[in-house]
Amino acid sequence: MQKTALITGGSKGIGLAIVKKFLSEGFHVISISRSMGELEWLNTAYPGQLTMLFADLSQKPEVHKVASEVDLICKRLDVLVNNAGVFIPGEIHTEEDRVFELQMALNLNAAYYLSKAVIPLMKVAGDAYMFNICSTASIMAYDSGGAYCISKHALLGMTKVLRKELMAFGVAVSAVLPGATYTESWSGSDLPEDRFIKTSAIADAIWFAWQNRQHAVMEEILLRPFKGDI
User: Is 229 part of a structural domain of the chain?
Assistant: First the structure.
């Protein structure tokens, strides 16, 4: 039976790399994003294997709507990757309230509500796996991290709770904590591309964890650039 992976924020960056990886391994992939991004050519390359759903996951009603669509598409879910997120630099004492509210809504609440909605499908699968894309900001604070660091700390905490709750149902849960990763947000940097983590390296780490789920759970997957943090 073909397995199914649900990936949020799958149209670019880390999410796109994860979509590519699971498609290449024969999965049916459901990608949730706000726009087509770079998915169009993948849809052509893997006919019938990629389902694209569009939603603004910072809005709770849209999370519930897209979760209902997922429920109609598949009766079991093998992999969930909560990747959708946003980074807005700022400091707590100066940033606007909307900066905090948006980052909490997309970086934390979306993962909470979507996970809650699709966990029944993961229980059906029996040996399903949830990956929450956290950050090194989940374990350390840094300059101009503000609300972003708060949201990522909270996401790591939620991941630990879900690991505890779901192990009885055979569902594994991992936190993925990447450092600086080369995506379009860094494309204007003066630093060379090889100073960053490649998005494909994160996808490969997730795939390794999935492959070895019968033997071990990688509770926290921490990746940093080879030459250290930026």
Answer: no
pLDDT in tens, 164-176: 999 999 999 999 9
Average pLDDT over residues 92-110: 98
State the pTM of this model: 0.96
Find the CATH number of the domain harbouring 114. 3.40.50.720
- CA dihedral 130→134→140→146, nearest 10 degrees, is -140
Q: What is the domain extent for residue 17?
A: 4-223
Q: In sequence order, which ranges of 50-145 are alpha helices (DSSP H)?
A: 60-73, 97-104, 110-125
Catalytic residue among 46, 112, 129, 148: 148
Rounded percentage of the chain residues whose pLDDT exceeds 70: 100
| In a domain? residue 184 | yes
- The total number of residues shown for the chain amounts to 230
Query: Is residue 230 very low, low, confident or very high in pLDDT (cuts 50, 70, 90)?
Result: confident
Structural domains in the chain (count) = 1
Selection from 220, 219, 190, 221 nearest residue 204 by Cα: 221
The tokens for 110 are 């979306």
Catalytic site includes residue 142: no
User: How many CB atoms are closer than 10 A to CB 104?
Assistant: 18
CA angle 101, 71, 122 (to 5 degrees): 85
228 part of a folded domain: no
Once rounded to an integer, what is the mean pLDDT over residues 191-217? 95
DSSP 115: H
